[in-house]
Specification:
The longest helix has about 40 residues, at about 125-165. This protein is mostly helical and about 200 residues long. It has helices spanning about 10-40, 65-85, 95-120, 125-165, 175, 185-200. It has one domain. The protein is built from 6 helices and no strands. α1 (about 10-40) crosses α4 and α3 packs antiparallel against α4.
Length: about 200
Amino acid sequence: MNQQGPPMEFLAGFLVCMIVILAIVILIQVLFLMTLFRTQKAVDERNREISPGMVFLTLIPLVGTFWVLFMVPKLANSLRKEFEDRGWHTDSEGFGRTAGSIWAWGGLVSILISVAQNVAQFGGNMELGMLISLVSLPVSLTILVCWILYWVQMAQYGKRLREGERGYQPGSLEDDYDDHRGRRRDESDRFDDDRRDRDKYE
């Protein structure tokens, strides 16, 4: 008696589901990177350690896993410089470095765990493979949580940079009448600082 393979309708449905899932994953990733792009775009060009468009290198398979290790601290440093340039407080600000670093390094750890699991299974050590799979679950959950936190934090920083420390749109009536808002340091400020330093030692 000949055994029939899976019906074509099942294979077509499975393929469609995989395409839809892949499209959703890519869409979410693009939305996340657009948040990083807009946040970095709100940073003055002289304070950027990387250009906004470079965040999309994360989409490159495998390369993106290593790129985020470099990108996260660069974005954090850019935000810190921008805050300092605007005269805003930075003591209590993390600039997404902690959550972003855990997410970035967690991705690399996840790949190493997956490789170790495959090696154990192909080597016939199923018990070790099952143990590694149990370890991968909390690691994956941690990566997911930190990624969401990083996304939220970067979105909030971008909003603060675009609207100002007090939440005013630049050029709005509230912005014009707020005498306590911070002011961006310009070249004249730096000149005054240098002059005061010279006067101090003369």
